[in-house]
Amino acid sequence: MSWFDTILSPIMWVVAWIMVLAHRAFVAIGLPASGWSWILSIVVLVIVIRIILIPLFVRQIKAQRGMQMVQPEIQKLQKKYKGKTDPASRQAMQQEMMAIYREAGTSPFASCLPLLAQSPIFFALFRVLYLLPDVASGARGSIGPLDATLAAEAENSTLFGAPLSATFMSADATAQVRIVTVLLILAMSATMFFTQRQLTMKNMPASALDNPMARQQKMLMYIFPIIFAVTGVNFPIGVLIYWTTTNLWTMGQQFYVIRRNPAPGSEAEKAMLERRARRAEKRGETLEDSGDVAVITDAKPAGGQRQQPVSAKRAKRQGLPKQQGQAGAAEDSQDGAADGGTPEVASEQATDSVLEDPPAPGKKKRQK
């Protein structure tokens, strides 16, 4: 056993247990012991790991959003210390930069957490699949519950004729292995590209996209898929299945988070407000955008119902706006003028209606 396997052995043991338990469940429902039951066990491994990593993923989304939102302040800080290379100035700039990150609740490290957390699992799965032939032949001991019999079943499992442990660069790679590898690499690269594009283009305001960090992320959006496409030929088929599945999970999870909690001023927020406006319109309401808060109000008042005047005292007691009491008084003045009274009398009645409470029910108002 190499030093690398010694370090990864606890994680390899956990990976083997998850895959074996999932394999037993699929066999129990009627799937063959060798074949899709092992392929689906890799998918279950992805689901279990990604559920565990959901809190880190949410932190990553917030951190990446915050990193781009604070870029204008970072640029101002860099201009402030431009040309100052003495240690005191560099240290002061770093301290002010970390203060900006703390105030925004973000950090450069937090945006890499899910990828860093998945790396040991990725390499552990790589080693488990790589060692399947040795475990199946008895040249190596079992990995947790993965004994020689189960390893032989996993070794004989294929995806469209390509064994799970086969690689594109292996000397005995068949045409099926190379075709399946290329298809999985294309799917892995495409899902990674659209995931990055969804985050940077749809969930960032236009003001946050015009800065060096945003341009760097756009560059990485094209570079990372190319890197994985070049290195993917060295990965076993099972590892490519794992990585493609986790990219699909990331893309769907990110779509859900951005749809429900978009960044202010982004295209995703505009789309969310439009959806809310359409739903409000169907209910006969309107959606008024009041700053950062969307307020839903009735589109039409109740038909045939007259707004009753409210005195200033009652409006204050009931917590109503002052304008409502004044509007009721003005309406009474118009009604008085329409009934034949002089404007002066109507105005006086309106003033009385504002200053005095309306008479209690059952009592007549004293004539002046």
Keywords:
single chain; 368 residues; mainly alpha; two-stranded antiparallel sheet; 16 helices; globular; disordered C terminus; protein transport; transmembrane; YidC/Oxa/ALB_C
Describe the structure.
- This protein is mainly alpha-helical.
- The chain has a domain at 3-70 and 106-269.
- Helices cover 68% and strands 4% of the residues.
- It has 16 helices and four strands.
- It has helices at residues 3-28, 36-52, 54-69, 71-80, 87-104, 113-130, 132-137, 148-156, 175-202, 206-209, 212-231, 237-260, 267-282, 312-318, 322-338, 343-355, and strands at 158-159, 162-163, 285-290, 293-298.
- The chain has a two-stranded antiparallel ribbon. A two-stranded antiparallel sheet has the order 3-4.
- Helix 4 runs antiparallel to helix 5 (87-104) and helix 9 (175-202) packs parallel to helix 12.
- It is globular.
- One of its GO terms (biological process) is protein transport.
- It is found in: Cell membrane; Membrane.
- GO terms for molecular function: membrane insertase activity.
- Residues 38-258 form the Membrane insertase YidC/Oxa/ALB C-terminal domain.
- This is Membrane protein insertase YidC.
